[in-house]
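queue> pop job 88
queue> type: inverse folding (structure -> sequence)
queue> payload:
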């Protein structure tokens, strides 16, 4: 069955805020791309969420995650919530 929901890229998605949002959206059935400056850290976070939730979560670099999403991007910055950029 095809998922008609938009995919979501969470840029900076390996910290507490980003991974928490990724978890909520993945649990709601969205395909989620977790981005990070460290692709290995993004992969680790995505694999953890996928195994815990049985959800469609992928890890990538920040730029890679932003390119792979279909409709929505959310940027989460460490320690500075003024960096939130969602569209």
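queue> result:
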């Amino acid at each position: 069955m095809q998922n008609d929901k938009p995919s979501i890229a969470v840029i900076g998605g390996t910290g507490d805020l980003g991974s928490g949002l990724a978890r909520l959206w993945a649990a709601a059935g969205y395909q989620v791309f977790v981005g990070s400056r460290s692709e290995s850290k993004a992969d680790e976070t995505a694999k953890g969420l996928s195994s815990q939730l049985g959800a469609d979560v992928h890890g990538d670099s920040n730029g890679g995650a932003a390119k792979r999403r279909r409709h929505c991007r959310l940027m989460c910055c460490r320690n500075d919530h003024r960096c939130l950029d969602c569209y």
